[in-house]
């Protein structure tokens, strides 16, 4: 996969564990959506990828906030095997199996999805990969890994939350790209070991990076830190697509205290990163 | 229902729209769990009450955080009609129908629940009422309103999030009790009109109140502000049952920036409350 890099990471001064290739950064570029980004855009069709043991809040916080702005994104909850998919509530730290969310859509070979009844397949404009306990098994799920790589390559937007970046990283779709992940996982070195070509940023609430591909296309990657950070990252995506005022209004309605600055990451320090 | 009041509200100095009866408050009592509250307690069996149009994050944030500590609570997702229950993502403000969560348990007359297959009924120790668009219809659902009143009367803990307090208030279970709700709903006067005997507190991230009932029993009411505030309130419940250190650990794992002080409520000011 040929890549030309243009970095819109909002915390370009955060430490990176590995730096491959040259990354041109502009703090300004990512700090506020420019006039072009605030233009009315077609809503993204976004596949929310569910798998057994996804972390409940990884999905639900962005789901709530993006679901509040259908002009920005229309969410399709999709899985390899549609139907109820059991979530996880911090199971790796002694928590429980969480409630099941219903996947109404099926992942299809080649990065498409269709409704569970076998309707017309389509390629989503955006994909959203949560993390969770299930990641440890899914990294060996060739179907899912292939799906993610193919869908990410064609997507306008790729959003990951928590260890979703570890899972996506295994597919190679994040190679050479600045990204972050769950702080505990990063402390333990899991994402770095599984996907050594990702430019892991240890200190960042979330990271935005716009990848320029051949043919003039771009893919915006937004990777967030653990669990709750997904809400902040989803708001950043809303800000890019619809402007800061819309993003602030969504946060306000949900009484979500948005950490607007992606470089403010107290959890990195807490975990010694 | 006879009530003897002992206020453990954590923001006893917040304004109340109505004050019925005498409420004895102690800021100290609620600010940190005392030795008694930190004693090892049996996990609460908690019925999470789902209804069509519940707000996704109202359920998922406390679900995630309480699900992380099975020594504190074991959650049973229950509905009048078990199966997939469609959530809402800020639909009243132009958002969308959200993903469906699966209710595995059925609400039964008299405040009990059983698994959906009709297993042995039991009375939950705790009930959790979320808010959402669906509240506007469910306030006229006599079965649900009766279930809530009866279950709340026998429960050790009652937790509401967002307009869940409006719904519970209609049952009479919050009469004479300090409680809060979604800020936008409070600004528009909806909970106050629907449940005028509740001691509505306009400025509070959440409110805790321990009600002493006849026979020496108590019910702890924790009512939270809108949507995301439910996570902070759930952590307050964890702190009461397992101590502050456990609550902070749960927040830390989820990278949730916990607003530990229930009286800090910037959204109240934003909404002119």
Q: Kindly give the count of domains of chain A.
A: 1
Query: What is the number of helical segments of chain A per DSSP (H or I, 4+ residues)?
Result: 11
| Radius of gyration based on Cα positions of chain A | 17 Å
State the name of the first-level CATH class of chain A: Alpha Beta
CATH architecture of chain A: 3-Layer(aba) Sandwich
Order of helices and strands of chain A: EHHEEHEEEEEEHHEHEHHEEEHHH
Low-confidence stretches of chain A: 1-36
Instruction: Look at the structure and name the CATH superfamily of chain A.
Output: Class I glutamine amidotransferase (GATase) domain
Largest interface: A-B, 51 and 51 residues
Largest sheet of chain A: 9 strands, mixed
* Main sheet strand line-up of chain A: 1-13-14-10-9-2-4-7-8
> Whole-number average pLDDT of chain A?
89
Structural classification of chain A: alpha/beta
Strand content of chain A: 15-25%
Please provide the count of β strands of chain A.
14
């Amino acid at each position: 996969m040929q890549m030309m890099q243009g970095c819109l990471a909002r915390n370009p001064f955060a430490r990176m564990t590995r730096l491959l290739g040259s990354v041109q950064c502009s703090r300004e570029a990512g700090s506020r959506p420019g006039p072009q980004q605030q233009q009315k855009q077609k809503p993204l069709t976004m596949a929310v990828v569910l798998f057994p043991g996804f972390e409940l809040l990884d999905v639900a916080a962005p789901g709530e906030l993006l679901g509040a702005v259908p002009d920005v994104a229309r969410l399709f909850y999709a899985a390899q095997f549609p139907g109820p998919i059991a979530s996880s509530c911090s199971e790796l730290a002694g928590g429980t199996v969480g409630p099941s969310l219903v996947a109404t859509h099926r992942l299809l070979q080649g990065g498409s999805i269709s409704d569970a009844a076998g309707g017309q397949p389509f390629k989503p404009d955006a994909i959203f990969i949560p993390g969770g306990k299930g990641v440890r098994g899914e990294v060996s799920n060739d179907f899912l890994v292939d799906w993610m790589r193919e869908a990410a390559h064609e997507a306008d937007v790729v959003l990951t939350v928590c260890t979703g970046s570890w899972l996506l990283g295994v597919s190679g779709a994040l190679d050479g790209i600045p990204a972050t992940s769950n702080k505990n996982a990063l402390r333990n070195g899991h994402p770095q070991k599984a996907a050594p070509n990702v430019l892991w940023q240890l200190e960042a609430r979330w990271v935005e990076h716009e990848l320029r591909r051949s043919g003039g296309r771009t893919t915006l990657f937004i990777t967030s830190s653990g669990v709750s950070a997904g809400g902040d990252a989803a708001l950043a995506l809303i800000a890019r697509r619809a402007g800061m005022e819309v993003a602030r209004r969504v946060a306000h309605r949900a009484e979500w205290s948005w950490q607007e600055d992606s470089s403010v990451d107290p959890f990195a320090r807490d975990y010694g990163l």
